[in-house]
Design goal:
By secondary structure, the chain is α/β, with parallel strands linked by helices. Helices cover about 30% and strands about 30% of the residues.
């Protein structure tokens, strides 16, 4: 079945609502993401750590992997897509979930042992807002707390693009800009790398092959001093 190009400019919520649970299938089995989760699990100091998952999506693989036995971490996922969250509540029943934008999310200082954010800071956002969110993350983290973060690195702002056959307004920072930002925030970057990933969007029934491109994906593992 052919998927016509959607020329409507989506908001962040409508973009992911239009994809829903199919996103999980398209982005499943990402070796770099799995490696980052294994790193996080091996570096958390104990079972039952408190973790914030920004842009939690369907809850898999992140919230599920972190909250299930034997780790039993206390995962709180936030997302703007109710269709994603409805799946997440079933996928990771031991985690808690909240419908909210990270720009509106509030928490006490030093209240989390770790924060994860996979491709959450890309749509309907400005570079200044990305920088403020990163600052907030390290306020929410306890000393020694960990951040696992991923994005598509590029120095772009308010750039209209088509992604998986859907039009949206994209903003990001380059790898160099992220490294400089983290340096300014005074955190330690334990490891960073860029890997290419081809979403399985055709198999997931999201769009046609001509509407899918390979993505460079930046992964950053950082620690608050």
């Amino acid at each position: 079945m052919a998927h016509p190009e959607d020329h409507h400019t989506h908001t962040l919520a409508s973009l992911y609502d239009s994809i829903g649970a199919r996103y999980e299938k398209a982005y499943a089995n990402n070796p770099a993401q799995q490696k980052s989760l294994e790193w996080l699990l091996s570096h958390l100091p104990r079972a039952g750590c408190k973790i914030l998952d920004i842009g939690c999506g369907t809850g898999r693989p992140v919230a599920l992997a972190l909250s299930r036995p034997p780790h039993h971490h206390q995962v709180h996922g936030i997302d703007v897509s109710e269709s994603m969250l409805s799946v997440a509540r079933l996928s990771a029943p031991s985690a808690s979930f909240e419908l909210t934008d990270v720009r509106d999310f509030q928490s006490d200082s030093e209240s989390f042992d770790a924060v994860t954010s996979y491709f959450a800071l890309l749509v309907d956002i400005s570079q200044d807002e990305i920088k403020q969110i990163m600052q907030n993350i390290f306020t929410w983290l306890r000393p020694g707390g960990l951040l696992v973060f991923s994005t598509v690195p590029a120095d772009i702002e308010q750039d209209a693009q088509s992604w998986l056959g859907r039009r949206a307004i994209f903003t990001s920072l380059s790898e160099e800009q992220y490294m400089e930002l983290l340096k300014q925030l005074g955190v330690v970057v334990e490891y960073s790398h860029v890997e290419n990933f081809m979403p399985k969007a055709v198999e997931a029934g999201i769009c046609d092959a001509a509407q899918v491109t390979e993505e460079p994906q930046l992964f950053i593992y950082a620690r608050k001093l």
